[in-house]
Amino acid sequence: MHVKFRPRRPSPAMVVALLALFVALGGSSYAALRVTGKNVKNSSLTGKDVRNNSLTGRDVKNLSSGDVKDSSLLAKDFKSGQLPAGAQGVQGVQGVPGPFPDVFPSGKTARGAYASSGFAAGVPVEVAKDAQSFFYQLAAEPDSHFVADGAVAPPQCPGTKEAPAALPGHLCVYEHVSQNATTLIDDPAGTLRQGFIIQTSSAGAGQFQSRGTWAVTGP
């Protein structure tokens, strides 16, 4: 007697159970997988494949110049002392020795520039002023001298409008430009130890101005 067997199809529950078993076994296999340099194709990894701040000098000691993008490294990426020092810079101007003085040093000269200008409609006369500070207070009031444009400077003012100078205890103001104006140093008593005021008055209608340089030397 010949009996013919037909294969029995697995039930849906059996299929689900087998799939779960397969996934479980496969997951443990993947967890045990170890990736080494043999598993990675040369020159296939990019910067985004490496975690930030994870590489050290030991990891990159065999890198060549072609492995790093040009102009991408910063000074902070190198260990202290690894970068060569730059060339020595130009020596700066020597400052005034500390501590900060309360009085302008005797024999020292401060220099600056002034500009006083305005516009006059006509009569009455228009007045413009420009205040200048010495930054240090002088030990005593200096004698003031205004050298008008084209005038001869007094002996107390041995400089020029391009290179202003003053003898100790003197303030010398050198006018460079004068236009439609009369100019003087406004020096009410007791104010010149800290600075001075240039006063320019219009000589007629229109633009008027006075510009120049000054020097003061401590008494």
Description:
It is a single chain. By secondary structure, this protein is an alpha+beta fold. The chain is elongated. It has a four-stranded mixed β-sheet, with no helix packed on it. It has a three-stranded antiparallel β-sheet with strand order 2-6-5, with no helix packed on it. About 2% of the residues have low confidence. The protein has a domain of 109 residues. The chain starts with 11 loop residues before the first helix and ends with a strand. A hairpin with an 8-residue loop joins strand 5 and strand 6. It is 11% helix and 27% strand.
Q: What overall geometry do the principal axes of the alpha carbons give?
A: elongated
Uncertain runs: 28-32
Mean pLDDT: 79
Give the SSE order as H and E letters. Answer: HHEEEEEEE
Beta-strand share of residues: 25-35%
Note the quaternary state here. single chain
Largest sheet: 4 strands, mixed
Radius of gyration: 43 Å
Total helix count? 2
Structural class by SSE content: alpha+beta
Number of DSSP strand runs = 7
| Spatial strand arrangement across the major sheet | 1-7-4-3
Helical content (DSSP H or I, runs of 4+): 10-25%
Terminal-residue CA separation: 141 Å
TL;DR of this structure?
This protein is of the alpha+beta class and 219 residues long. Helices cover 11% and strands 27% of the residues.
